[in-house]
Structure formats: structure tokens, C-alpha cells
């Protein structure tokens, strides 16, 4: 379906043209004064000087032509030269009817779908997921779902940190803890044990201990550096240990990501791209793009138009070691080789912007990606506590993600129990726990996604779990309310019929219809701008419009059965639109709350 604003613009352009005015000025926007009108056009103001006419004269000419329009109920010229517009009920209801009949509720899809890889998650193996991993997972998952909804082929890659010194530290710490010496025997040629010599819980203790030890024990630090180099050079026993670390870590990660309703198509890490590094670096040198600088291999990526200094991209240290830039560039080589994407999107902390500027420029300059491949960096802000500082535990440490999820689940459970006690409702403990998890996830995700991704935000568990205001629970409560009405209607023998939608009966019904028309463009706009918060804003406005309509309308007590059928169809469309939106945001609504 065409966006309703495009249909309105076409009608306005025809009116300008009929009056002999430049139709390029006939641009309509949603009114910034909804108390005065639904849409407005300021085109007369643009034309006045060139035509030597008063803006109100031009506006009056156009408004006069629109008096016979089937699109507008009213078109009024007001000083100094605005055209205030209100849609006709028949035009609006016809549009809503077509939305209701469409399986995607009229949502616009990409005309030229892309193959897109989204790099999000970015956890380090052998470490538990913590609150710092939340935003990448939540935002990245939403971007992935938005892209798919719009018709693109989207591939999500977790891109684990499984390379570098941390692995050498774990290998040496495991050796000192007495793990099977077969992994450390350079002459061993047999098969290594199939079962990992440690659990996820043990790994969580091994790395912090090794890291702390390396800062105080220089000899241990040097051993770890040597082990890292040997791992990267292909030492069999160390790579067998790496396989165990990955197996155990990934299994643990999947449990936590599953609780967030986040999943990945690819569970690849930095180690998977290492085989591409030697040839990539050689080609960079052979093609003259990389050169030595103080023993390191670098690619100059500064451009004349830069307003600030962009340092060279170091792709190999003076000691021969790889860096994050090396791994990220090699990963692009791998992605082009395996998937040939049109577009790669990175959802990473915004403090890494300089790193990705260097990587993207080096990738283009060295021919790792084609000139027309799109590389986007969506840098997100930090999640802060009420003190405005990065979110911490009460003791001041970094909170595990599982603990954060547990806390919001428990807070939601208490609120639901309190509500049921106030209503003297029967309490099914198992059902309460299940519902609480569903609503808590909405609270957590919506609390994050309703903020612009690039900005920092305050994590406030009391506000996020509230059933009032711009929160996930409020959105879910709206959907559950609609489901309840639909169940009652169907229990009385009624059936939803989209074709029976009538013109709006009053201002509240018209306001709900007007909000619904925004759906068909919001998904595509939000995805192209990598802006999930725009979907949240739409969902909140639509929920408010529905709840106002609901409180002012006796739907089940409606005596006019044709009107009741129309309102039920309108409610069902509202439900479908809201559920489409929250599915893209990565959560769902329960049947009851």
C-alpha cells in the first residue's frame, strides 16, 4: 500500500497545479497543532515572494479547489498562509479497510531487498554475559527483525571474542590447575578428550584469576603471551582447549540470550577469521596500501576532508601480533567470501567509533569490500544507574546479565501479584511466574529501545515495570485489553470482518484510525535510519489513542450492531499492528495480565 501521506500529497499537488502554482511546493505534513487540524501545508509561504502574492491569497485559492475533494473533509486557509487539513471519514475508513485486509497491515516493504549481515552481541568467551552486553543484544536483535520485516535477507552474527591474550591466560591457568597434561604435550599425536575439562562455572573463575595473576606475576604474563602466540600459530593441544572453551561458553551464552529472546544465525568468533589474515596482509602490502611504520604494518586512512585527525589503521604490530582491526578486516574478507552481502551493520558501543572509521576506510581502500558495499556503525550509549554512572551492582561491581534478568522478573512478579490481590482475583502461581517473565522482558527491552540508541539512558527498574506511562507493560496491557474484548465478542458469536469498517463515528474513533495509518511507513523508515525508538514512539502513540477511544466508547454495549462490528474490526487491526511492532522489538504479549 502507498503511504497515506503520499496519497494526501498527490491530492494537494493536483490542487496546486490546478491553480497554476508549482506543485513542488505542495508538501503536506502531520499537523504540529492537532487541536486545530490533522495535517497542514505551508507551501503558499514558499511561493509568495516569487509570485509577488500574499501567502493567504495562494492558500485560499488552493483551499477553494479542495472544497470538492473526496480526500479532505475540510481544507481551510488561515493567516499568514497555512492550509489546515482534515481527512474525510470515507477516505480514512477506506484506507483502514485496505490495511485490515492486507496480511502485513499495509506495511511497505523494500523495493530492492538487500542481503545484510548484522554484527551484534560481541561477548568474550570464558566470561559470563554482563549488563554491558545488554544493549548490543537488544538493539541488534531489533535491527535484525526490522530488516527482515521489511523484506531483506538478514543474517545475525554474534562475533565472539575468542582470540588474543585472554586465551593464553586461560590456557596457562588451566595448566597450573592440573588439567590433563595431554593438551600441553607438544609431541602428542593422538585424539584429545571429547569432554571439556571444565564447566561454564569453572571457566568463569579461571579467567578472572588468570587476569589478576598476570598483573602481578610477570613470568606468568610472559607465559600467557607465548601460549597465545603458539595458539595462533596452530599448536594442536591449545586449539583443542580452545574448542572446549568455545563449546562450553557458547552453550552458556545461548541460555542467557534465549532469556532475552535473542538468537544468532552465526556463532562465529575472531578465531574463525584468522585463516584469512596472512593472505590479506600480503595483498595489502603487494598492492601498496600497507607500509611499515616503526616496525608495525599500517594503512593510511586519513582523508583531506577530515575535520579531525584520523590515525593510520594498524593491521600488524611490530612484534607480528594481530589487533582488533586485523581481525575485523579479516572477518569482512570472510563475510564477502562466504555471503557476499550488500550491507554490513555493526551494533557496538559508540566509544569504538574511531576504530570502525579506520576499519571501514581500510576495507574500502584495500579492496576488501566493493566500493558500493554499505558499512554502517550503530554506536550505542551506555546504560546507567540512577546516579548517572554506568550501571553497577550494589557492591559496585559489574552485574551479570542473568542477575539483571532475575531482578526484573522478580519485580514484575511482585507487581502482578499485588494487582491480583487488589482485584481479589484467583492466583495461579505458575501462571503468574510465566506472565511475569513475558512482561518483564517487555519492560527490559522496551525500556532500552524506547531511547535513541546513540544516547545514554537511566536504567530504572521501578519506572520500566510500571503499568502506566511509556513502558513495555503499558503496551502489553493495551494489547491484552484488546484481546479480552475480542474474546468476549467472539464468545457471543461475533466474527471479525475487516470489510465492515465504517466511517469514524466520533473524534476518538477518527484519532485511532489516524494513528493506525502511520504503521505502513514506520517500519521501513525506522529500519533505514537504524532507529528502533521510532517504532516504540509509534506504538506508544497508538496505545494512547486506543485507550482513549476505549474509555470513551461502549463497544460491547453498542446497540448498533453494524457500528459494533466496525469497531471490533478496528480493534482487531489495532491488535495486529501492535503485535507486529512488539514482535519486531523482540517481545510478545500474554493472553492475560
Write the topology of this structure.
Elements: H1 4-18, E1 28-30, E2 39-41, H2 43-51, H3 55-65, E3 72-78, E4 82-87, H4 89-101, E5 115-119, H5 134-149, E6 153-157, H6 165-176, H7 200-216, H8 218-232, H9 236-259, H10 277-286, E7 290-293, E8 296-299, E9 313-316, H11 324-338, E10 343-349, H12 353-365, E11 374-380, E12 383-384, H13 401-422, H14 429-449, E13 457-458, H15 461-464, H16 472-491, H17 507-516, H18 519-528, H19 532-552, H20 561-585
Parallel strand pairs: 5-6, 5-10, 10-11, 12-13
Antiparallel strand pairs: 1-2, 2-4, 3-4, 7-8, 8-9
Helix pairs in contact: 2-3, 4-17, 5-18, 6-7, 6-8, 7-8, 8-9, 11-12, 13-14, 16-19, 16-20, 17-19, 18-19, 19-20
Radius of gyration: 29 Å
Largest sheet: 4 strands, antiparallel
Strand content: 5-15%
Topology-level CATH name of the domain at 472-585: Isoleucyl-tRNA Synthetase, Domain 1
What is the CATH H-level superfamily of the domain at 472-585? Isoleucyl-tRNA Synthetase, Domain 1
Helix content: 40-55%
Low-confidence stretches: none
Number of strands: 13
Helix and strand composition category? alpha/beta
First-last Cα distance: 34 Å
Verbal overview:
The protein is α/β, with parallel strands linked by helices. Among the domains are: 84 residues, Gyrase A, domain 2 (2-Layer Sandwich), CATH 3.30.1360.70; 95 residues, no CATH class; 64 residues, no CATH class; 114 residues, Orthogonal Bundle (Isoleucyl-tRNA Synthetase, Domain 1). It contains 20 helices and 13 strands. The strands form four sheets. The chain has a four-stranded antiparallel β-sheet. Strands 6-5-10-11 form a four-stranded parallel β-sheet, with helices on both faces. Helix 13 crosses helix 14 and helix 16 runs antiparallel to helix 20. The radius of gyration is 29 Å and the shape is globular. The mean pLDDT is 95.
